[in-house]
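Researcher: Here's the sequence for the chain we discussed earlier.
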Amino acid sequence: MPAVAATGTMQLGTPAENGPAAADDAVRRRWSPPWRTALAAAGGLALFLSFPGHDLGFLAVLGPAALALATRGQRVRSGVWLGLVLGLVFLVPLLSWTGIYVGAFPWLALAVFESLYLALLGGALALTSRLPGWPVWAAALWVADEALRGRFPMGGFPWGRLGFSQADGPFTALAAYGGVPLVSFAVALTGSALAAAAVALHRARRAPRGTGRRRGARAAALALAGAVAVPLVGVVAELPLAGGSLTAGGPTRTVAVIQGNVPRAGLDFNAQRRAVLDNHVSRTVELADDVRAGTAARPDLVIWPENSSDIDPYRNADAAAAISRGAQAIGAPILVGAVVDGPGEKLSNTGIVWDPVTGPGATYVKRHPVPLAEYVPARSFFRFFSEKVDLVRRDFVAGEGSGVLDIGGARIGDVICFEVAYDSLVADTVADGAGMIVVQTNNATFGYTDESAQQLAMGRLRAVEHGRTVVVAATSGISAIVAPDGSVVRRSELFTPDVFVEEIAQREQRTVASRLGGGPEWLLTALAVGAVIAVVVPAAARRRSGRGAAA
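Model: Thanks. This is the structure I predict for it:
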């Protein structure tokens, strides 16, 4: 590989004189930086439209395609700029729900910070764009970038991963074989292959008639075939998976989901904490009346959402009595989402198994409190940017141990709210024997935005990934029951009370993805790192050699 390939510069000349490198240079001359910037922006818009709220999942492949074309043959610093443009156009509107009640600054600060990861991705794509087989390395770089973004800093923020746009479509089934990272890889590989086809077609068109044009046409056809093959693999991968039956695959338990609703949307939804608790008790008692009337099946267990009792039932006898009243009326244990005092001055976001006879039992404490929402690190520093951090008066503590709980004859895997976005926090519940997955969440603080739908899409991917029914219980919506194939069997509307009762199989069989755990993500990340090293190390050696010769 010539030295210029490592630096991203191009040799000048005609395609006949310099071959593919010159053709790439012709592309760069034709697509000046403003056009590349516009292309990156279009890719960001396509990504935004692919997510819930617009639900045009098929557009997701155009994001990686646009960034691959825009960064092709560019210098690293140009790639960084193009990645940043795509990131801002994508993430600023996608994350707008974060500022619905706290103002524009926290929302924009988060969106800009997350866009920096895509800027890093753009630089890496530019760096590796001249390697043979570059669409594969480009797709692996998307996975590596998402892996980094989902871990650092403060545990990361994996919202907006490519895979989360694919709750429906030909890529969905791949989650059962390699989790969300494999879905992201497939989306990015399809887009990058489309970009390769476009580059090859451009070369063919500019090449002299004869061998060069035929070679370019063959390369374009091969790349286009690859772009079609990836989603076809996803369609074939779906064939051996279980269908959308809730009752197949294991012994069943009757599960009730209670959405009690809140007095009002916004940050002060829990200003009437007792009203929220009473809403959930009332819906449960009404369900008990329906059971006695024969219009509803008697549940083996009942799921309440996160924050269904923001009054600590361990310390408040009235709250404990209210929960017991609901459990005794329905005659089944309730998984209560409670805010519990302690340890010390901190709080615990806790799922409590509440038995109708013995009261509170086993618990799960949320392991990933949300930075700047459930706890504030470096409070004085962040207060400089926004006084809204002081709305978090007491920090929540992180729990330990997976959320596997035995309740009503079922072994459930409990995750709380945003934890559904983190691969490992869901995977270890299944590894520890959960026969179904429960997501307790409270979305009242995000109003009538797309946040609830985006979070539900994550639950749908988790259902396919682990071959488990996913039960989502939300205070104000969207609550849902998701079959193991990712289809939504029941769902509620926002800010309306609702109750679901369904027979759900408690499954034991594990998918390939469940068995592999984080392996696919680590493998794809290693490929991405290897591609960067393959460019950086030879370039550094050439620079050292050049300095030695000059000396």
